[in-house]
Amino acid sequence: MVSSKDVAKYAGVSQTTVSRVLNTPDRVKGPTYKKVMAAIDALNYIPDANARSLVQQKTDTIALISGPLYNPFFVETTTSIVNYANENGFKINVHFSKNENITDTYHSIFENKVDGIILSSILLDDPIFEKLEKSGIPFITYNRKHESNKNFVEMDNEQAGFLAADYLLSLGHEAICWVGGPLEISTFKGRYDGFLRAFQKNRIAVEQERIFLTDTSKEQLRETFLKMEMLEEKPTAIHAATDAIAIQMMDFYISAGYRVPEDISIIGIDNVEIGQHASINLTTVGISSPANLGQLAIETLIDMIQQKNKPCIQITKTVRLFERKTTIERRRV
């Protein structure tokens, strides 16, 4: 295997000069730089990336901790993050993590040096946030945030939940079921609070038997559907906390012989691309800007890395309703 010592000998320079060409080329005179690069090309020398990162104190690598791929939101945001990072000279180490293996994921990231961390898996009171701050590594959360209210990019989740519920209520639906994830997660907590605010505004009581909190897996959502089927008064509308939940509930209802929206109206939150497909046409609430939260977060993180400072980032994007074909005015009997 060719070494930097071989390159130095071939070019007729010192090994230190070869190191400078690779790590601080702006400090090397033009003719010397060209001579060393010619030797590298002639010998087909491949620099040791780990050694270079030790010298430069940078790896050009970012760690991403994303949510599960059964949620199209994470498919879209991961794609945006990876593409933007690559376009700007960074590699992405992607970890798709659930709560049960999140500790191992964090250990893996801290053990391997990275220039930045972008994550969507944090809980409101997550103790890992303090470790992230103490690590000295620039980081940002997206879609979720910590209770400290620092370093996040999110949509206005409370307003999103409000707009979705208020819209269903305006269509005459009162027997509305809420289906969402754990309230220890800021995304679900904010959207649930907005759901409650809409009912308060319309002076309608929330029936606790219509509130369903799950782990959002397909199995748990199926159990939720079966529980809703057993309600004495079946719902006329579903307020899903995410588009992924909404689309899965649509599948259960249609498979059971229901018509959407004639028999059951369904609304989601996130405005994922698949929900806009003509065969789904999901009514939903999403951010007003064309870029998704992953794109906004990676742009912000790379700015933090390149500026070499760690300001407190607080970005909450405004939201709006996207009225499509899965909701309809409640039919009066």
From TrEMBL:
SUPFAM superfamilies named in the record: lambda repressor-like DNA-binding domains (SSF47413), Periplasmic binding protein-like I (SSF53822)
Instruction: Give the GO molecular function terms.
Output: DNA-binding transcription factor activity; transcription cis-regulatory region binding
What sequence ranges are listed for the domain HTH lacI-type? 2-56
Query: What CDD domains does this protein map onto?
Result: HTH_LacI, PBP1_LacI_sugar_binding-like
The answer to whether UniProt assigns keyword Oxidoreductase to this entry is no
Write out the entry's keywords from A to Z: DNA-binding, Repressor, Transcription, Transcription regulation
Q: Which PANTHER family would you find in this protein's record?
A: HTH-TYPE TRANSCRIPTIONAL REPRESSOR PURR-RELATED (PTHR30146:SF148), LACI-RELATED TRANSCRIPTIONAL REPRESSOR (PTHR30146)
Protein name (record): Transcriptional regulator
